[in-house]
Write a structure and sequence with these properties.
By secondary structure, this protein is an alpha+beta fold. A hairpin with a 5-residue loop joins strand 4 and strand 5. It is extended and about 60 Å long. The protein starts with about 35 loop residues before the first helix and ends with a helix.
């Protein structure tokens, strides 16, 4: 056999081969299908774990991509929102979300019944997870330390 080739069948020898070789794609994530073609191929409708009718659809394939699951009841509003971006474009020079906007965009209750939210963005930004009953205490603490934090910030300016 020539160097660099991989047989797709057992090696031809006088004894029973102990290994089989198979071909493997070298460029697994080089899919050039359009987003519409990928969506058309992947779209599914079903019930999620909570019994809610959802549509699941992928718009891209490969590492770092995933199917989106949208409740069917929310699909018209989702389409309208996405249409607005398609028609009007996306502001490339938009500033990062403020901490308040980031809180609004990310706060949720997890499957483990924890409150989760993220303030920071970028690589390595991790969400905070709290028990719901701790929220009042956290708010009270932050209000308590706010004057001290503001005073300290003035000193370092």
């Amino acid at each position: 056999m020539r160097a660099g080739t991989v047989p797709t069948a057992p090696l031809a020898t006088n004894r029973e081969p102990s290994r089989y070789y198979t071909m493997a794609k070298l460029f697994v994530s080089t899919v050039n299908a359009s987003a519409v073609a990928t969506a058309r191929e992947s779209i599914e409708v079903g019930l999620n774990d909570d019994g809610v009718a959802v549509v699941k659809v992928a718009f891209a394939r490969g590492k770092g991509t995933g199917a989106q699951e949208i409740p069917v009841a929310d699909l018209p509003a989702f389409i309208d929102a996405l249409s607005g971006y398609a028609d009007n474009g996306i502001n490339k020079s938009a500033k990062a979300l403020s901490p308040v906007d980031m809180l609004h965009a990310t706060i949720c209750t997890t499957e483990e019944d924890r409150v989760s939210f993220r303030i920071g963005t970028g690589k390595g930004a991790k969400p905070t997870n709290l028990a719901p009953e701790e929220m009042g205490g956290v708010v009270a603490f932050l209000r308590e330390v706010l004057p001290t934090v503001q005073a300290a910030a003035k000193k370092i300016k």
